[in-house]
């Protein structure tokens, strides 16, 4: 990783090129066009802002290209602007390439005038020139170049048009002309920007013309619908249904079946069991079961179009020690190792198969859907649709991004609450994520549980979760106090997501998830295994029996589910699923609902707790936990007693 | 240095030292009230509304403003109406600057795209969603009817 503080190696003339520009102008795509190898990504100390660098060869010269975060303003108000300024300060000899959205020349030129005050050689790139022409706009690039005193290049980055023109223009980079009217030193940023905008308007009058076409392009119309008060709701419903089908049914249903049953239960687990039996032998015989996997295209939560079924007789982790054999001490040790690896709570048969066969397909499907929505520009329209509701909880529409990401992984979403501007918003969002937003690992199990309930039960669950989000959000906002940030959000045009971009984003999120989460799965299962081996599970279960059996009205064995839920609530949900389905089901529908609500409101996992401590403080993490767990039991018990009272 | 207090009832100014009524009062040193030597009104030294309970129950005071009839706020415009910005209203300089970087400054022309569920305006080719409260603060004046038609 390149240290961001490293001295400027490109100080010898124009060895470095820095890309600067407004957000959403296609800087990253242009960066990819200019360079194509050895990209290094580095985080600036104290910020989450990523700086991407790569080397490139232009006209036979080796040049370092640096991509900076999108900014609207050079004044160091946001992390992004501070980092951009620091990059510019550290590379004093660098050529600045300002990337502009040709449709949005006014805002780009405001930034150009700010950059001009740095007195560096510059090139102005007008990207998305095709979108400008599609909308009936024209820019006189030659004239603009003359007025600014820097080369101006038109490009269409996604189609790699104009990249060679830019490379040719780089040696011609010039220091921009300073406007005649000097800025008063005393004025604040706002006053100075007003003066600059007046200068921009003069330049625009000479170089820019716009003739609106009669019909708006389809993308623009879809963009309007997506934030329309009525049509917007329909679009929102369609999008949610599509995501539910893709993640909930295809990912959590079909893909999990294929991976869990088809791959792990039918092939990998028996293989691992046999291998371990060879390495750690003791006299025992594994049970054999017939396992069937059926593949189909899901139509509704309970129907699917079947494609095929595959049956196999395989050995399972359960076994019986050969009758009449007394195990020696060595054999007992071997058995312990055997159980640790491939037993009921084994590292391979439970942790890895759970992580890779159940969680991974769901999370992959979710991140894929999330990246597509993110790149299409839909999230800012979603922010408009939900802003009013979020305002009630002291948040604004921008919080929709971490909240939706929470449906994928709450821990990752807790990390992204950094994008929110005030402490109050970060705390409220973190709280709601930890309390009531089920992550995809848990969602997969909950969906399976819902299938055992009738429709009304699922609706009650959904109603309780949404009600809890609103109530606790409102309460937290009131108790925490402080300011909410202004809701001023740019709505980017709807775009067709680039396949490569979506895949890269999905891959990097998955990479983070695997590194962060898989070790925790193994650790959690290990603890579970030890508790089971030491017969502690029964003891603890007896201690919390009054709470589980009395208040929640559940069989006392369910204490185990909640005990494990402290570690990972989705593990807990798996226990509930085990108790709710199968030949020896012990839960009534009413009990399933109570258990589901309680486990949904648990804190997601230890990783989430640690992330809260890291992002806020240990004290915050403990106070949230101290609220969340009793509250989860309280709401669960409430559902139990209301249900019994209504005798459902 | 002597500390001076002002009675919130009669406006009398007095030194803090003489006025704590700790002697003879059953509350003793735990009494947080101060008695004005002039009018005998008792009041807490500082108003302390910053507790989580009062934040839970308190309500912010409603804001009210009035301006000439030709001037309207962005919030009062209908869908598709165009107008020129007069001023960005109250709020901090940083709020005004975060509007300015999107080209929203006095003199700029904006078009209202929608008011529900949240206000969206277009400035040039930039579409900007605004909180209704911010939109209410931005004052605009509409151009002559014939230019509005184009």
Number of DSSP E strands of chain A? 12
* Gyration radius of chain B, rounded: 26 Å
Pair of chains with the largest interface and how many residues each contributes: A-B, 44 and 36 residues
Silhouette of chain B:
elongated
Mean pLDDT of chain B: 72
The helix fraction of chain B, in percent, is 10-25%
Main β sheet profile of chain B? 6 strands, antiparallel
The assigned structural class of chain B equals alpha+beta
Number of helical stretches of at least 4 residues of chain B: 4
Which consecutive residue ranges of chain B, at least 5 long each, have pLDDT under 50? 146-150
How many angstroms separate the termini of chain A?
Answer: 60 Å
Question: Could you tell me the mean pLDDT of chain A?
Answer: 83
What portion of residues of chain B belong to β-strands? 25-35%
Describe this entry's structure for a reader:
- Chain A is of the alpha/beta class and 648 residues long.
- Chain A has helices at 27-34, 79-90, 105-116, 129-134, 141-148, 163-169, 189-207, 218-225, 231-279, 329-342, 347-376, 378-392, 400-406, 410-416, 423-435, 440-452, 455-480, 499-533, 536-543, 545-551, 559-565, 569-580, 589-600, 606-615, 618-645, and strands at 16-21, 40-43, 50-58, 61-67, 95-101, 122-127, 137-139, 152-154, 208-210, 284-298, 304-321, 488-491.
- The longest helix of chain A is centred in the middle third of the chain and has 49 residues, at 231-279.
- The relative contact order of chain A is 0.07.
- Chain B is built from four helices and ten strands; from the N terminus they run E-E-E-E-H-E-E-H-E-E-E-H-E-H.
- In chain B, the strands form three sheets. Chain B has a six-stranded antiparallel sheet with strand order 5-10-6-7-8-9. A two-stranded antiparallel sheet of chain B has the order 1-2. A two-stranded antiparallel sheet of chain B has the order 3-4.
- At the A-B interface, helix 3, helix 7, helix 12, helix 17 and strand 12 of A face helix 1, helix 2 and strand 9 of B.
């Amino acid at each position: 990783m390149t240290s961001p503080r490293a001295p400027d190696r490109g100080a010898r003339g124009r060895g470095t090129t820095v890309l600067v520009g407004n957000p959403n102008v296609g800087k990253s795509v242009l960066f990819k066009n200019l360079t194509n190898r050895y990209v290094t990504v580095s985080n600036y100390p104290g910020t989450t802002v990523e700086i991407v660098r790569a080397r490139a060869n232009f006209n036979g010269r080796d040049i370092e290209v640096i991509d900076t975060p999108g900014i609207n303003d050079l004044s160091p108000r946001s992390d992004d602007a501070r980092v951009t300024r620091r990059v510019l300060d550290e590379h004093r000899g660098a050529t600045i390439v300002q990337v502009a959205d040709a449709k949005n020349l006014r805002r780009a030129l405001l930034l150009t005038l700010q950059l001009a005050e740095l007195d560096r050689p510059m090139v102005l790139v007008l990207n998305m020139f095709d979108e400008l022409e599609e909308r009936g706009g024209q820019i006189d690039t030659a004239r603009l170049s003359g007025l600014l005193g820097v080369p101006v290049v038109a490009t269409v980055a996604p189609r790699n048009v104009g990249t060679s023109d830019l490379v040719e223009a780089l040696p011609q980079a010039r220091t921009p002309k300073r406007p005649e009217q000097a800025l008063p030193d005393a004025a604040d940023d706002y006053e100075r920007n007003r003066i600059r905008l007046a200068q921009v308007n003069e330049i625009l009058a000479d170089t820019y013309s716009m003739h609106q076409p009669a019909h708006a392009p389809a993308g623009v119309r879809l963009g309007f619908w997506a934030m329309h008060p009525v049509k917007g709701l329909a679009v929102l419903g369609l999008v949610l249904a599509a995501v539910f089908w893709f993640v909930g049914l295809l990912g959590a249903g079909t893909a999990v079946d294929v991976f869990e049953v088809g791959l792990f239960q039918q092939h990998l687990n028996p293989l691992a069991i046999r291998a371990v039996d060879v390495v750690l032998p003791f006299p025992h015989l594994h049970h054999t079961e017939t396992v069937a996997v059926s593949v189909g295209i899901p139509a509704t939560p309970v129907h699917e179009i079947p494609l095929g079924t595959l049956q196999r007789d395989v050995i399972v982790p359960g076994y019986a020690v050969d009758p009449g054999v007394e195990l020696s001490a060595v054999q007992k040790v071997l058995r312990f190792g055997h159980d640790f690896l491939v037993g009921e709570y084994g590292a391979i048969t439970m942790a890895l198969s759970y992580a890779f066969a159940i969680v991974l397909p769901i999370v992959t499907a979710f991140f894929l859907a999330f990246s597509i929505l993110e790149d299409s520009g839909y999230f800012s329209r979603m922010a408009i649709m939900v802003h009013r509701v979020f305002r009630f909880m002291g948040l604004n529409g921008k919080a929709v991004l971490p909240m939706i990401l929470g449906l994928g992984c709450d821990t990752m979403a807790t990390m992204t609450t950094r994008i929110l501007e005030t402490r109050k918003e970060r705390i409220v969002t973190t709280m709601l994520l930890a309390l009531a937003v089920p992550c995809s690992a848990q969602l997969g199990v909950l969906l399976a549980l819902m299938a055992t309930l009738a429709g009304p039960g699922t609706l009650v669950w959904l109603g309780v979760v949404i009600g809890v989000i609103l109530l606790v959000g409102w309460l937290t906002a009131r108790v925490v106090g402080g300011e909410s940030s202004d809701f001023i959000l740019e709505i980017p045009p709807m775009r067709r997501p680039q396949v490569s971009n979506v895949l890269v984003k999905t891959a990097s999120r998955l990479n983070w998830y695997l590194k962060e989460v898989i070790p925790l799965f193994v650790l959690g299962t290990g603890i579970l295994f030890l508790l089971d081996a030491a017969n502690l599970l029964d003891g603890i279960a007896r201690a919390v029996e009054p709470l589980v059996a009395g208040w929640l009205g559940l069989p006392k064995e369910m204490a185990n589910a909640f005990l494990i839920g402290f570690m990972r609530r989705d593990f807990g949900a798996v226990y509930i699923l085990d108790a709710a389905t199968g030949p020896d089901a012990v839960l009534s529908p009413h009990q399933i609902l109570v258990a589901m609500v309680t486990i949904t409101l648990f804190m997601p996992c230890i990783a989430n707790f640690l992330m809260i401590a890291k992002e806020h403080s240990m004290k915050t993490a403990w106070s949230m936990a101290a609220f969340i767990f009793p509250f989860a039991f309280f709401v669960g018990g409430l559902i139990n007693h209301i249900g019994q009272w209504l005798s459902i | 240095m002597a500390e001076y207090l002002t009675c919130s009832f009669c406006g009398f100014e007095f030194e803090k030292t003489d006025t704590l009524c700790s002697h003879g009062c059953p509350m003793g040193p735990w009494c947080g009230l101060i008695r004005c030597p002039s009018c005998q009104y008792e009041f807490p030294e500082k108003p302390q509304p910053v507790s989580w309970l009062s934040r839970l129950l308190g309500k912010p005071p409603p804001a009210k403003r009035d301006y000439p009839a030709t001037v309207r706020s962005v919030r009062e415009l209908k869908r598709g109406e165009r107008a020129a910005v007069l001023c960005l209203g109250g709020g901090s300089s940083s709020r005004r600057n975060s509007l300015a970087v999107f080209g929203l400054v006095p003199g700029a022309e904006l078009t209202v795209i929608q008011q529900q569920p949240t206000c969206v305006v277009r400035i040039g080719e930039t579409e900007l969603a605004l909180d209704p409260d911010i939109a209410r603060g931005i004052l605009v004046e509409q151009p002559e009817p014939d230019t509005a038609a184009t």
